Amino acid sequence: MATKTAKREKKSLTYAEAGVDIEAGDEVVDRIKPILRRTYGPRVIGKHGAFAGMFRLDYNEKLFKRNFKDPVLVACTDGVGTKVKIAADFKIFDTVGIDCVAMNVNDLIVQGAEPLFFLDYLGLSKLDPADTTAMIAGVAKGCEIAGCALIGGECAEMPDIYSPGDFDIAGFAVGVVELDRAMDPLRVKKGDVVIGIASSGVHSNGYTLVRKVIEHAKLDYKKVYPELQAKGQPERRLVDVLLEPTKIYAKPIVKMLAAYKTKKVVSGMAHITGGGLPGNVCRALPNDCDASIDVTSWTPHAIFKFLQKHGNVDAQEMFRVFNMGIGYVVIVRPTFADSVIEKLTKSGERAFRIGEIVKGTGEVKLVGV
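Above: the chain sequence. Below: its structure as tokens.
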């Protein structure tokens, strides 16, 4: 009897079966087009979905209010840290994009720069069009608040790198400052006033300790804790308080700096991130000055007292890790302190004197801890 040799059909593998969905990526590109367009001004040129974004810097009187006489480009990059872990665990994707923009543009404006444009990077285990669009919408919202254009980005679907449900986000900001208006630590002098601008909460630093405190004290992210509630405001769970977006200071700071066209009343600035006040204000000081900061001059957010109590964290450690209610610092000439505070207040910020510059060695002294 004749026998037939059965031919084994070979299966054709696809990229989608390997874990990367090209069609989902294309869908995201289509979804975010109108979201990105909302951040564009007349300087943005080029086609959506191009290989790179283009931003016009030269002068055209019909389009722009002013020209840059001696422009210096300022660039920085940053992420959101382990705050994204909480966002991923609770599938809250629309706030960390704002955090990402804030962590970059708040650094950029410290140099006296005006934010121009922004790029974002998303690394994901799986590219879900709705969730990914929510993340990018958050970035776009942050760019609108900061007054810069979101001209490009990257979504990388890497299931071999990220565990299911995990993601990371990073950003890249570019701004511009006139050379003679750029910040210089050597301008800070003894007698200058230190002005603090209130933060919106924990911002985007210290979340590894935050998560450890919650684990150690067996706290419930979904619980509404009375001591964290603000009068007259809707109740918020612990997770909602912790995912409050980082405050973006770009527009108020740029507006305040522009108000002083001739006199350089601001001698230094600092974005209060990892390291807290001691680890960041020192970056704005010359070697012959200290910043003496009175920590009783403002009331920190309730979340900091909550974390300190439940984690039994030393006060010095709290100020070394967290912003403790001050997200940004402006150092000004004493005769202009009230004027600067007034301008920031009119822009909707809570600003107050928190210290002064004294003779020293470039350190920050916390008084009242």
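The first helix runs from residue 15 to 18.
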